[in-house]
Specification:
mainly alpha
Amino acid sequence: MSEPQDASSQTKELRNEGPLTETQDIPSTALYTRQREYLQTATAENTRRAYRAAIRHFERWGRRLPTTRETLIGYLLAYAETLNPRTLAVGLTALSQWRRSQGLADPAGRPSGA
């Protein structure tokens, strides 16, 4: 049984560059680029389009990214009666993915200590 690999190792193997060794020193910009490439290939264009629309909707609501858990709750409450719950779920996922792509903690995730 093989050990689990992190996303950067999997991405490098997908690009036929072989597994990373512990002694390799990879600049963080290279890892970021590989991560973005991996996410792009792992996510359908329609999904990315929906995420972009959801982020624009959030920003038109008058908020900027990054945001806080309290702001997300306010956004959900503001649209709870007018938007389909699945639309709101896509919005939360889009905001979470944006945060992850920026290397930030996810305010929509489980609170610490929960």
